[in-house]
Amino acid sequence: MGYRTLALAIALAVPGLALAQQTPVNEALASFSVKAKAQSGLSAADVANPYVSSSYYDASTGLTHTYLNQRVNGLAVFNATGAVHTDKNGKAVLVTQDFMPGAAAVAPSATPALSPEQAVGAAAKNLALPRPVALQRVVEGRAADGIVFNKGGISEENIPVRLMYMRVANKLVLVWNVSIAQLDQEHYWNARVDANTGRLVDQNDYVVGERATFQEHVLQHQSQRQPLTAKQVTAPRKASGAKGTLGAPNSLTVIPVPFESPDVSPRVVVPFSSTNLLYSPVGWQVGDPKAPAGFFPDSYSLLSSGKQLTRGNNVAAYDDNGTPTSGNGDLNSTTTSPDGGPNRDFDFPFDQTKGPRDPGNLAAGTTNLFYWNNMLHDVMMSKGFDEVSGNFQFKNLTNQGLGNDFVRAETQDGSGRNNANFSTPPDGSSGRMQMYLFDNRNLNNLTVTGPAGAAGTYKFGTASFGPAIRTFPTGFSGEIVVVNDGVSPDGGVSSCATPYVNAAAVQGKIALIKRGGCTAPATNNFSDKVKFAQLNGAIGAIIYDSNPAGTAPISLGGTDASVTIPAVGISGVDGERLRAALTAGSGVVSSIATVGPDFDGAFDNGVVSHEFGHGISNRLTGGPANASCLNSAVGNQTMGEGWSDFFALWMTTRPGDNGRTSRYIAAYDNNEPFGAGPGIRNKPYTTDFTKNNYTYAQLGTGPGQSQATHDVGEVWATVLWDLNWQFINKYGYETDFFSPNGGNNKMLKLVLDGCKLQVCNPGFLDGRDAILRADSLTNRAANADLIWNVFARRGMGFNAVQGDRTNGTPKVTGIVEGFSLPPNAKVIVLSNKNGAFAGNSLEAYPNPAQDVLTVRTQLTSAAPMQVTMVDLLGKTVLRSVSVPVAQMQKSGIDLNTSQVAPGIYMVRVTTTSGTYSTKVSIQH
């Protein structure tokens, strides 16, 4: 029935689809028509004539992935998606869908009141952007297929517009989908405006939400972190060599894979000849002789300038200016990328003490960013993120997938600080990685003179908006005055309104303001508080942390081009001290004496890998043509962060590493000695449950639960990291990241395969099931029991509940953790090799223990479990304790071992199916 219509629609559904591909797509559509109706009771009309967004054969698995969009009245329904995955014989091995039942009955007329031009204007207005100027069509087409406009003076890229339906609750709304890449690079909007009224119905951002969330985590964890010791502050960061002392022709001087930063490894020479030709056959750099003549046009290579720049088929790396007033690096300039000269010798001096804008440091950082993006391209391509599945390349040599989407890797982005991000538009448009400068707070000194109670030196963080402190040669100085807005409950010092009650006193002074404390969300922003101070005549602002016990300085995030006064952030302890002295005494004079050299995010290879990871998960989930499939609360904003953290940890795992060792994200950017933590996450990544006890119940909205972007992502990354070490435990660690062998390589391949198979806007259990399905399809389920055991250990077992789906969006609420295995799964008993946890059958930690030993298991039992400790002769040391099964699976039982003599003992757990034991050590 619907299949005949589907077959006829293929040419329109996928205009660029090769004739040879039409047969597997036909087979996929036929399978979808039958199985989707059976899955959810969809009607023939519901599954008729879907739009095929992409379809490709995955040579690494032998599967063909076909991704679909529901279509009503000839229009696609935004994110009403489906997929058919077929094997080499054309058999459908997995069919998923999130189509809307009865969509045709609730669809309004497909005739819009607004023209496409008016839709662009409406989108710009709703997004607070300027009105388009000289808007013209550059690609004509049917409204249902899309029309492309020029940049209109408001976008960095041409503006595609497409008529479609948007699902809102149980109804459909006719919308224009408009994509605008903001000129300031803050956002790359994909907005849906009502096609009849112009109101904004929905939006998503191709720039994954690092600008707010990543930065807020940096600020939050800076405020929680204890100041470094004097030894740590003065210890030099590793820096090696000047130009000519390390380099060699046809090479790069970089921090090599798998080392995380200059704190872990000196820079070394990596020859271009080491490039893996399977994944970069024309080399990494435009001047490589492996590239055929004319392969790169001069408009891209810029070789006519006589310079050899950090650009190639996979990435173009360049300086993005490093100052808040710019932030728009010029891809076409020959001066924003380092020049390797005729010998292609990319060796530049690096000395952290000179600051990132030092010409040598800038060139060294950009070179490092170029190298790591190329390595990420090659390693991920070896695991299946290739041309046909949507990777990032200037030209696709297989003529599959879309080219002209190399990564634009921008060093020292000037539009903010303490930050990083990655934008992922659909296949065929460049991904953009923006790396930022980070505060060196331990060398930023605010000197305060008098009265005696406040005199001294205070550490501070800088602001990502307003004039940079370093632009004041002698620092900015003046009398400090506590603000009083007459509104805030803390005596007005939170600066929640303007004008101030004491505006006259603030005029020409530096305003002291407390963080937070406002009911209106906008006025909690640092930039808003500083803008209030500016409007009241202040010449500068000091914001102190609202945590009165906080001892670390804070950095001030946000953007506001209208802020023209400088601002700094100090700790809560220092702020309260200043406030008390000012309240009790007379004027205080301040002078910013020293600004420490910033840290360049391009040298934090873990964060670089994290950002590239957003491009991977966004392109693979839902197919390369749909970059909006990780757009839900549990998709883009949480699981995406988890995958990216996993990729960061994976790329920086070194031979000899141990799974129980604490690993941190952004330690270098956060100015922390390697291994000291805490990085910018709440808990370290480790298989040690005493240090990271996250389970699925961590997700939610209750006290102590997580719903923020990166917080929830931590839970997903934690279980992936556990699984990675179990794979290493089973298959070993392989130093060659391009090899198919080794547990680390097998695990990364499985994660990427799972992304291709999972549903659009997945939840945690969707992600788990996709990994299980990938293992089933590619490894004949060789690791199914292991995978189940690992997920069950973190509360994502067989009896876990994912939560509701509303319009295809899994909620953070409604989640129920579960620790059970499927009926036929085996309990895996593993050793502690490589630091993997001691097995899901029975865990006892810490081991060695002192006064308390926690015993935990994922075993099942028809009756409460009995826990006993005996010595090696079988004599009972701690008598049997009866523990409910649910407690043993979730938190376990704490045994008091304070009175147990030091030595080696056995812990026995008796269930209705048998007794299990593990060896423990007691030390006092």
How would you briefly describe this protein structure?
The chain has 19 helices and 36 strands.
Write a structural description.
The termini are far apart. This protein folds into six domains: 2-106, Nuclear Transport Factor 2, Chain: A (Roll), CATH 3.10.450; 116-205; 236-439, Elastase, domain 1 (Roll), CATH 3.10.170.10; 448-596, Glucose Oxidase, domain 1 (3-Layer(bba) Sandwich), CATH 3.50.30; 630-635 and 652-662 and 675-810, Orthogonal Bundle (Neutral Protease, domain 2), CATH 1.10.390; 841-922, Immunoglobulin-like, CATH 2.60.40.3080. The protein contains 19 helices and 36 strands. 25% of the residues lie in helices and 21% in strands. Helix 9 (359-382) crosses helix 13. It is α+β, with helices and mostly antiparallel strands and 924 residues long. The model is unreliable at 1-20, 210-216, 218-242 and 633-637 (pLDDT under 50). The strands form nine sheets. An eight-stranded mixed sheet has the order 20-19-26-22-23-24-25-21, sandwiched between helices. The protein has a six-stranded antiparallel sheet with strand order 5-6-7-8-9-10, covered by helices on one side. Its cofactor is Zn(2+). Pfam families: FTP, PA, Peptidase_M36, Por_Secre_tail.
